[in-house]
Structures are given as C-alpha cells and as structure tokens.
Amino acid sequence: MILNNKINVVLIVILTFTILSASAQKKNLAYYQCAFFESYRVGNMVPWPGLIAEMEKVKSTDLAWQTEMIKAMYGLVGYQLGAKNKDLARAYVNKGDIHLEKLLKSYPRNAQLHGLAGAFYGYKIALAFYKAPFFGPKSMYHIEKSIELDPSEPGGYIEKGNSLLYRPVAFGGDKKEALAYYKKALKLMEASSDQKCNWQEMLLRAFILKSLYETNQTAEAEALMKEMQKDYGSMSWIKEFVGASLIEGK
Length: 250
Prior knowledge:
Blueprint: H1 2-26, H2 29-41, H3 48-58, H4 63-82, H5 86-106, H6 111-127, H7 132-149, H8 154-166, H9 175-192, H10 199-214, H11 218-232, H12 238-242, H13 244-247
Helix pairs in contact: 3-4, 4-5, 4-6, 5-6, 6-7, 6-8, 7-8, 8-9, 9-10, 10-11
C-alpha cells in the first residue's frame, strides 16, 4: 500500500512537471504575438505590461524575440499617450531606448530597428514638444535609413506616415501624403508577412481608416470599417481611435 502511494506521488510529480513544461513551451514568440493581438482586438491593453515583463525576464538574445518585445513597447506607449498617461508612456520609451541602443550597435543595418528608433524619437517629441527641433531630425534620419536599407520593410513607411499625419501643416504635415505611405506599408505587410496574429497590421489599418475620414474620403472609409469589423469583430475602441465626430459625420 505504501509502495503504491509512493508510485502515485511520483507519477503525480512527473505529470505536473510535464504539464508545466508543456505550458512553458507554449510561450514561444507566436504565443506572445497572439496574446498581444487578441488583447488589442478587444481593446483591452491591461495584459500588455505583464506580457512585456514576461518577455523581458526570458532575457532572450534572439533578434526576432527582442524586436517583438520592442514593438509591444511601441504599441503600449502609443496607447498610454492616447490615454494621457505620460508617465507610463515615458517609462516604456526609456525601456525601449535601452533595448534599441544595444540592438542597433549589433545590427546597424537592420531596417526594422531603424524604423522603431524613428518611432521612439517621435514619442519623445510627443512627451516634450519643445524638444522637436532636436529629436525631429533624429527621428527622420532613422525613418529614412529604414527605407534606404530595405524598401520592402513596412516600418519606415508607417513612421513616415505617422510623422506626416500628426505634424502640423505649418511644419510640413500632410494627411493625404500620410495616407499614401500607410497604404504602401499595408501592401508590403500583406505581401511579406505570414504572421498569424499581427496586431501591427490591425493598427496600420486603423491609421488608414483615420486618414480616410480626416481627408473626407467617407465612402472608402466606411467600406474599410466594414471590412475591419468582419476581420476583427466589433472593434469597440475604433471610434475613440479615429474620433467619434469624424465617423458620425458631425
């Protein structure tokens, strides 16, 4: 009887270890990509800090892993800025900076990293607009470098679009030109990416939707809205992202 109990205990320990190991193995890059995607799709960013922290704890030296982690920080900063949480946004800008600085030293000709660097300089301007004369040229350097190094990488075009969309007209902002860069980026992304869960594509389409409404291309915007709702569900957050007054035509 005692022997049977010992055997049972050993079997339970082995089974538990197997389950935990299998669970840990599931948390590969695809796991995190889909976790970010599903969270973004339903408009719930609460899990993102925890997911990013998990990825950081792994201390992976894999470039794809580290790049995905920085992309998640990029997405979280954008959300926090939209929610007026500048302190939280600044914390993740600082984190992203540390990772990008190290990676760019090791991979100075990586177009995706340059695109992200351009984006983070853009975020620094959003956090302190008076620094625009200093950070603006740095941002544009990395964006142009991204496009120069790899014209098929969408990131540079996305950030060029963001720069044109959010820059005042007096400083060269142009929403129609921004839309053209977004559309180019989407074509490249659709042609090159086989990623199952791509929250960045969803965000890019949201930027295209916003640009269409802001340039009074209402029919195309409404068609895209229906397409996105078919692909992603109700997207309850989209009105706040685009602007309810634009969508409702007020």
